[in-house]
Design a protein that fits this description.
heterodimer, A: mainly alpha, ABC transporter involved in vitamin B12 uptake, BtuC, two-stranded antiparallel ribbon, two-stranded antiparallel sheet, 6 strands, 5% strand, B: alpha/beta, OB fold (Dihydrolipoamide Acetyltransferase, E2P)
Chain lengths: 323, 210
């Protein structure tokens, strides 16, 4: 029998880790392998999945986005505020009363706009992605507080709530939305020119520029899409809670980066996949769920998650050296 | 060809916006009126609920001479038989009526012995500031499912407590003297069976000195 090569092991390490965790937790807790619990895990990861798809594209280009949590919070708050209170145009003596569809559209536009600003800052003003998105994190959080006056916007109605708390064919709508986004962006990353360009920019920016690719435009596109996906995550979360919390999404950027790295995407860019990120989200979701079921203290949960992320990055680095 | 493409795109977008509008434009005055009409007024609601539903349902309360011995002999069975709880909450409430002799009076409570021959305090009528959801939840007349906004539901509780503080408690404080007989109807919330059952802490809805 042929031994498993190092390359094969590296390729399937995330899947292997997930299988090991699922088997171990099935023995450790009777509740783990039940339909409601598995559905709950998928529902819990749907928000992180939307964030992480965008984060994967950004990290594939060699960048990073620390503002996804803030964009999530602001998009959700804007949509909720417009839906609940409308937009008064005092100079015209009228008010725009938004429908749920209008509020969703506005929330996504906010996400796309903030993502575009990130991209412009990084490409036109040559800001390091870490600094540009850290600035946007602060801007986004501040704007959310200004928009909401620091209070949650609640009671948004069942029509809006459908995207976060509704069901279709017995499956939560949030899972359908995130699954559709996975399929769409998997297709874009593998089968479209933009996808190939993203890998090319991440593999070697200089080589991509020599090949006459418009590197700046590709980066702006990627950050804009990342913003839009963070907005979708914000809308799902807001709809699920029936409230836009001004502090929503605090620290979500870390979970998102962790999912991408655990899923095998290299922090130096050019290597990784959307499907790997799905595995990374599942690993984090299963880990969170398992630690709760096993009644591990929330403080220890953070420590354990930290070690898992460190292990994933260390394996990525060791893998790169071997290559 | 290029222009016709743009025209088709604009027509499609316009049709979609007409079929699925993103927003409606209304005059500011009308919007303000609509908002005022849609805003829940917990004080007005509590006032109506107090007069039209709560005070007319006092006879549905469990008698103290039934409930107290039941709690004494088997608290779990008494909870199953007589209590109410909201959603998945672990706390529960009793709707209770009875009469008892005043054993002690303080700023926050009037202590009663409520069953035949009792010498210890069995009921503590709360006469200080009220914070509990006992009255809102205890009678079973209001359902949390009718209030999708939990803030509205909580505001009802607060408004009912204020009504009791203003209308019920001043009279009780005046008439409650040690040795006097007081009849009462009220609600009790049990969060911790070790501290809330002995004595049963009751928020009075109606009291009368005999």
């Amino acid at each position: 029998m042929k031994p498993i090569s190092k390359e094969t092991f590296t390729r399937f390490q995330s899947l292997l880790a997930l299988v090991v965790m699922v088997v171990a937790l099935s023995f450790a807790s009777e509740q783990f392998l039940t339909v409601p619990n598995l559905r709950n895990i998928l529902l819990q990861i749907s928000v992180n999945l939307c964030l992480s798809i965008g984060m994967t594209l950004i990290i594939l280009t060699g960048g990073i986005n620390l503002s996804v949590g803030a964009i999530l919070g602001l998009s959700g708050a804007v949509a909720a505020g417009l839906l609940k209170n409308g937009l008064a145009l005092k100079f015209a003596g009228v008010q725009m009363q938004f429908t749920p569809l209008g509020a969703i559209f506005a929330g996504i536009c906010v996400g796309l706009a903030l993502g575009w600003f990130n991209g412009m800052g990084i490409t036109r003003f040559k800001l390091p992605p870490f600094v540009a998105t850290l600035g946007m994190l602060s801007i986004g959080r501040g704007l959310t507080m200004l928009w909401t006056n620091g209070f949650p916007v609640t009671a948004l109605g069942s029509k809006f709530g459908f995207i976060g708390a509704g069901f279709w064919l017995g499956v939560p709508t949030a899972i359908w939305i995130s699954a559709a986004l996975v399929a769409l962006f998997y297709f874009i990353s593998i089968h479209t020119t933009l996808g190939r360009y993203i890998y090319a920019v991440g593999g070697s920016e200089k080589a991509a520029a020599f090949a006459r690719l418009n590197v700046n435009n590709i980066k702006v596109w990627v950050y804009t899409l990342g913003g839009g996906l963070a907005a979708v995550a914000g809308l799902i979360l807001t709809a699920r809670l029936d409230a836009a919390d001004p502090k929503a999404g605090l620290g979500y950027e870390l979970d998102s980066i962790a999912a991408v790295v655990i899923g095998g995407t290299s922090l130096s860019g050019g290597r990784g996949s959307i499907l790997g990120t799905v595995l990374g989200c599942l690993i984090i979701g299963v880990l969170n769920n398992g630690l709760v079921l096993m009644e591990v203290s929330p403080f220890w949960q953070q420590v354990i998650k930290g070690f898992v992320i460190l292990a994933a990055v260390a394996m990525d680095k060791l893998g790169s050296k071997t290559e | 060809m290029r222009w016709s493409g743009w025209l088709i795109a604009v027509a499609v977008v316009a049709s979609l916006c007409w079929l699925f509008p993103l927003f409606h434009i209304v005059p500011l005055e009308r919007a303000a009126k609509e908002k005022a009409a849609a805003t829940f007024d917990p004080k007005a609601f509590a006032e109506k609920f107090w007069g039209e539903q709560l005070l007319t349902s006092l006879d549905k309360a469990v008698k103290a001479e039934v409930l107290l011995p039941a709690i004494q002999s088997n608290a779990a069975e008494a909870k199953r038989k007589f209590s109410r709880s909201v959603g998945v909450s672990e706390s529960y409430t009793y709707f209770i009526s009875g009469k008892g002799r005043v054993m002690a009076v303080s700023d926050d409570e009037v202590s009663l012995a409520a069953t035949e021959g009792a010498t210890n305090v069995e009921i503590s009528l709360q006469v200080g500031l009220l914070f509990s959801n006992a009255v809102r939840d205890g009678t079973g007349l209001l359902s949390v499912n009718d209030y999708p906004n939990s803030q509205d539901f909580n505001a009802i509780s607060e408004a009912l407590n204020r009504i009791i503080e203003e209308r019920v408690l001043p009279k009780l404080r005046k008439t409650a003297k040690v040795g006097a007989m007081i009849s009462f109807v009220g609600c009790a919330e049990v969060n911790d069976e070790f501290t809330d059952l002995k004595p049963l802490k009751v928020i009075p809805l109606k009291t009368e000195a005999k």
